[in-house]
Amino acid sequence: MTESQRGRVRIETSHKRVRAYLGGHLVADTTRAALVWEFPYYPTFYIPADDVRAKLEPSGATKRSPSRGDATVYDVVIDGITAEGGALRYLDSPLPELNELVRLDFAAMDEWFEEDEPIYVHPRDPYTRVDILASSRHVRVEIDGVTVADSRSPRILFETGLPARYYLPLTDIRMDLLQPSDTHSSCPYKGTADYWTVRVGDNEYPDFVWIYRTPLPESQKITGLACFYNEKVDIYLDGVLQDRPRTHFS
C-alpha cells in the first residue's frame, strides 16, 4: 500500500479488482486503482491510463484544483456512446502519483464493480465501518414536545464519523404523523432510503425520517426500520436527553 499526504490529499493503492461500464461496455478494468481522498468523507477512484479501454477525447475544458493542479477534461467514448466530461487527467500534477492516472467520474458511468460486487454512489472507504447492534435501550423521540416514537427494541447503527443512529420498528412510531416524501437518497454501505415528512400540529418537518426497505446485504438488520435525524429532533436514551450532534446533516 502506498500513501501520500502531500497537499492534504491522501492517496492509497487499492488491491481490489475495479471495473467500470458505460452502456454495457467495459470502460476500465484494473487491479491497480488508486483511492484518492479529494474530500475527507470518502475516496474517488483513479485508474491507470493503461487500464482504461474507452477512448478519451479532449473536451477543450480544464479544471483547477489547489492541491492536484490543472486537469484536462475528456469525453469518454466507447462503441458510439459518449459520457461528456466523464474523465479528468492531471498530467502535470504536483502529486506525481496522479500523472499516469485517469479520474473517471463515478456518476458518469452506468455500473461500477469491486471484484464481482456492484458498488453505488462512491467507492467504499476502507476506513469506514458500519456495525448494527440489537439493543433493549429505551429510545424516545420528541418533536416540538410531542412524542413521535417510543421503542425498547431499537437497532443501533454505528458508522465511522457519524453519530449513532437509532432504527426503530414502525409499530413504535406515530405513523399517523408521517407523510411520504418524494425524496430518496443512496448510501454505498446501506442502499437506497425513502423518506417521510413529519407533521406536528401546524408544522411540517420535511424528510426528518427515513427507511431502508431493501438495504444492501451488509445492512440487512435495518430492513424495514425507520430512523430520525439526531441532529434535528430530541432523542431521549434511557430517559436522558441526548445532545444534538453537529454534522453535515445538521
Keywords for this structure?
single chain; 250 residues; mainly beta
Summarize the structure.
The protein is mainly β and 250 residues long.
Topology of this structure?
Layout (H helix, E strand, L loop, with lengths): L2 E2 L5 E4 L4 E5 L2 E6 L3 E4 L6 E5 L6 E11 L3 E10 L2 E9 L11 E4 L6 E4 L2 E3 L10 E5 L4 E5 L2 E6 L3 E5 L5 E4 L9 E10 L3 E10 L2 E9 L14 E3 L5 E4 L2 E2 L9
Antiparallel strand pairs: 1-2, 2-5, 3-4, 3-11, 5-6, 6-10, 7-8, 8-9, 9-10, 11-12, 13-16, 14-15, 14-22, 16-17, 17-21, 18-19, 19-20, 20-21, 22-23
What would your notes on this structure say?
This protein is an all-beta fold. The chain has strands spanning 3-4, 10-13, 18-22, 25-30, 34-37, 44-48, 55-65, 69-78, 81-89, 101-104, 111-114, 117-119, 130-134, 139-143, 146-151, 155-159, 165-168, 178-187, 191-200, 203-211, 226-228, 234-237, 240-241. The strands form four sheets. The chain has an eight-stranded antiparallel sheet with strand order 1-2-5-6-10-9-8-7, with no helix packed on it. Strands 13-16-17-21-20-19-18 form a seven-stranded antiparallel sheet, with no helix packed on it. A hairpin with a 3-residue loop joins strand 7 and strand 8. Residues 1-6 have low confidence and may be disordered.
Inertia-based shape: elongated
N-to-C SSE series?
Answer: EEEEEEEEEEEEEEEEEEEEEEE
What's the total helix number?
0
| Biggest β-sheet strands, sense, barrel | 8 strands, antiparallel
Cα distance spanning the termini? 35 Å
Mean pLDDT: 95
Proportion of residues in helical segments: under 10%
Low-confidence runs of at least 5 consecutive residues: 1-6
Strand content: over 45%
- C-alpha Rg (nearest Å): 22 Å
Structural class: mainly beta
Query: How many strand segments?
Result: 23
> Can you list the strand order of the major beta sheet?
1-2-5-6-10-9-8-7
